[in-house]
Structure formats: C-alpha cells, structure tokens
Amino acid sequence: MLSSTESIEISVVIVAWNAAHYLRLCLDSLAKNPPRRSMEVLVIDNASADGTVAMVESEFPWVQLIKSKENLGFAKGNNVVIRQCRGRYIALVNPDVIVFPGCLDTLADFLDQHPKVGNVGPRVFNPDMTQQSTCRRFPTIWNNFCSATHLETVFKGRPFFAGEHMFYFTHDRTLAVDVIVGCFSMIRREAFDQVGLLDEGLFMYGDDVDWCRRAWNAGWEVYFCPDARAIHDRGKTTAPYPAHFAVAQQRSILRYWTKHHTIFGVLGIRTIMFFHHLLRYGLAALSDLAHARKRSQGNVRKQVSGACLRQLLYGAVPAKPEAQAAS
Fold it and tell me: Tell me, what's the pLDDT at 280?
C-alpha cells in the first residue's frame, strides 16, 4: 500500500494465533477504510495451525507478514514487530478488532494535538454495538476485593466500590485514564523509546496495565478518545481453553504486583485470589449436586478455579492449548 520511499506515519501491529477468521475481518476493515495518513500493516503469526499464514499471503499481499516458528506470546510477538515498524505512531490492534472509518486518523490527530499523551485508545463496541469497557484503574487491594466479593455489582455505578473496570464511566467523553485496554491502542514512538517495549515476562494479559503504569511513571499521559471507534469481538479465540488462559492471566497479575507493589501487596492479592477461587469452586460443586442440568457449566467453573488454586499453591500450569486440542 506504500512505495518504498514514502514516509510512514501509522504502523498497525497485529499478533495472530489461530484467529484466521477474525484476522480476515480486521485486515479487510483496514483495506476498505484506510487512513488518509500513510500506513503500514505488520502481522506476526505465532505458529497458527488454522491456515492464517496462507490466508494473509493469498488475500492481503500488501501486509508485511512475519512467521514465527513458535507461539511467542502477545507481548513478545508485539515487540518483535515494533522493532521492525517505521511509523511515528504505532497502533497495537488485536486480530478480533474491526476498525471503523477514520479511527486511525482520529487517534493520530489526537496525539498530534496532545504532545504529552503517549498512549490513546478508541471507543470500542461489542459486535452487537453495545459499549465495551476499555478504561481501567490501576489495580489496588481494595478494588480487587470489590471485584472478588461482587461489591462492584451490588453497588453498581459507584466509583468507590468499583473494581479495576470503570463500568461507571459511560465512555462518552475524552478522559485521562490509568489504563487503556490492550485490544486497541495507539502509542507514539517516542513513548516506546523512553518507557521501553512490552514486558515479555507477561506471556498474555497484563502487558497493557504494566506498560501504562510505566508510562505514567515516566511522565507520559494515557487518554481515552471517544471520537475514534472500533468493534472488538473479544474472547472467542481463548474460549475453548478456559483453564489455561485463566492461569495465564493470574500469573500475569502476580508478576505485575511483584514488579509494582510491596511484598505485603503481593500477599494481599494472593490471599484475595485464593479465597475467591476457593469459594467459586465450592459453589460450583454445590450447584452440580443441586442442578444436574447445569453440571457442564459448573464443571467449567471448577476446572478454572481448580487450575488457579493449584497454580497459587504449587505453581502448577495446565496443559497448553495445543496439547489440549490434540487430546
């Protein structure tokens, strides 16, 4: 889509793993609604087994495709591509995102107009066009306690009892936020140069919280921009492997707390996790006994909470998705 001599303003970076269907929709949205600014699109395939590579090569030859021989994870996969891209602004986009017309330009315009902002994210919708919450607060013992005990649900709409998710925020105005969820964000290159790349110790999940924390610490601001819009069909590629990805998320949370909090904070978050999953496992077991028809759903909850409890107690990790799929 660019001549070799043309300067590039926006680099779109996509990490793909067994998401050929969604990646096709994402790339198609970029092809049909390109920004007015110059753009390059780089996709790294993390050793997919669903024909992702062949699909990109045959249908989107203008995409710069990087083929990894192994699943590098989300953070490392992004870093591999970020080191190769040339844009002033780097958009990290999940493969299950559909970009609306003008979205990338609006985000780039926002960065042009706000030189202290290092990271900006768009308004994101579910496929049925309901609002998706993409603004977060930094994790604390209190907001995690509110989530684990469902106080955020009981006192819905009250920021004091909210968890990390800002469900009380209607996403209808520009706002400085602690964290922009990593499904779609645009980061200026200078911010990456100063803050550093994503933490590769976070295989999946938590990289957005960690990077935004480091950005704020380095003096960069993080903003939500409602004028830029996209759709995110979240959770589809990870749904078949609930225990594996739940443990991956838990391990990322513990790494974040170890990096950014004291030992007392780490002990606190581990305690909240432990009793949350212990209670969840017990309630799922009781539900199985009382409601045979709901046994399948209860088994999933027990599988997830059991795996998380084993990881907390023994460091055990469930089989990788590839192994589960083969069994």
Answer: 81
Question: 221: which 2 tokens?
Answer: 């601001």
Same domain, 287 and 185: no
pLDDT at 286: 74
209/65 Cα distance (integer angstroms): 27
Per-residue pLDDT tens for 52-70?
Answer: 999 999 999 999 999 999 9
Structural domain tally of the chain? 2
Q: Is this model's pTM higher than 0.90 or not?
A: no
The structure tokens 């330009």 sit at 105
Sort 230 into a burial class: Cβ within 10 Å, 0-12 / 13-18 / 19+.
buried
Q: Is residue 203 part of a domain?
A: yes
Query: Residue 87, Cα to own-chain centre: how many angstroms?
Result: 22
263 burial (CB, 10 Å; 0-12 / 13-18 / 19+) is exposed
Count the helices and strands in the chain (H runs, E runs): 12, 12
Buried b (16+ CB within 10 A) or exposed e, 184-200: bbbbbbebbeebebbbb
One domain for residues 175 and 302: no
Quote the pLDDT of residue 284.
76
Residues sharing a CB contact under 8 Å with residue 286, sequence separation 6 or more, in sequence order: none
For residue 293, give the 3-state DSSP assignment.
helix
- Partner residues linked to 90 by β-bridges: 11, 187
Residue 260 domain-assigned (yes or no): yes
Phi/psi for 239 (5° steps) reads -55, -35
Q: Token pair of 97, please? A: 């995102």
DSSP character at residue 319: P
In a domain, 154, yes or no: no
Residue 185's domain comprises: 10-134+171-232
Q: Is residue 98 part of a domain?
A: yes
Residue 14: CATH number of its domain: 3.90.550.10
